[in-house]
Amino acid sequence: MRDLLRSLRATPLIALIFGACAGGEAGPPGGLTGTVTIDGSSTVQIIAEAFAEEFQIANPRSRVTVSATGTGGGFEQFCAGDTDISDASRRITAEEARQCATNGVEYLEFEIAWDGITVASHRDTDWVECLTLSQLRRIWAAQSTITRWNQVDPSFPDEPLRLYGAGTDSGTFDYFTEVVNGVRRAARTDVQRSESDNELVGGVAGDPGSLGYFGYAYYLRNQDRLTVIAVDAEDGAGCIEPNRRTIRERVYRPLTRPLYVYANRASLDEPAVRGYVEFMLANAAALLPGTGYHALDAEQYQSSLDRLVRETGD
Q1: Burial of 188 (0-12, 13-18, 19+ CB in 10 A)
Q2: Structural domains of the chain in order of their starting residue, each with its CATH number
Q3: Could you read off the pLDDT of 153-173 as tens digits, one per residue?
Q4: What are 194-236's pLDDT values in tens digits?
Q5: Closest-CA residue to 41 (of 106, 125, 97, 112)
Q6: What confidence tens digit (pLDDT) does each residue in 26-63 have?
Q7: I want to staple 89 with a disulfide (CB 3.0 to 4.6 A). Which of 35, 43, 121, 268 is the partner?
Q8: Chain-centre distance of CA 184, in angstroms?
């Protein structure tokens, strides 16, 4: 992967990008200086950190900071004008867009990758391989009183069922509650929550009988510590596990979702920010497989690059 990325940084496309960002004058790669501030989704954090690492190798005088306060927390800072880029595991809401408009923050939205929210349990949980969407709803619904596995299915053991889920500032929380419970942000309160996917993985991996959900890349990095749970979206249509193929082909339903990056238009006037966004879109197809997420079609990234130029100029 490292050799591939080195070769990508040497291509005419990348040289053209760095030249354009430096004010249209051709110059050696690595000439960009400045800072890029990124906050938002913990799910997208893995992607942002991969892009930031490679961008800074190509531009050693630049500095990219990546934080993860959750999609909602990221938009709060972004719409206040405090960050250049906001990572999101859902689209910006109408309320958040109004807040941006109130503060004079204009932005460009880019779809960057596909993810499959993964339902998982402790590695020693050997009695459940699949849950139906109805069972997930019964477990996670706001009014749920299920606290033991045999309440989900009488064939499961009479063992405590402890839940770990995304924090309420997380786009994963918003997406999961909407598609599983049918109402966005409607969920039971007796759940161990965190905006950090790593903390959720650690909780599930260390708690026998637990059940949780998080981005697929976090499962992939910890699959030796977890048991993945397949999902039957139509209560009898068949159990489907999240993997590269089922996410890529969108058959892992309804938990396959797009991931987004939002760029402040004003920040795009800064060469480092503009360069980072262009680097991200130009190299996403090569970088994303190493992160655990699925890339879009090459044409979609090119379309985003074209739109960036069209709407903000060369």
Answers
A1: middle
A2: 2-114+258-312 (3.40.190.10), 118-254 (3.40.190.10)
A3: 999 999 999 999 999 999 999
A4: 999 999 999 999 999 999 999 999 999 999 999 999 999 987 7
A5: 112
A6: 334 458 999 999 999 999 999 999 999 999 999 999 99
A7: 43
A8: 18
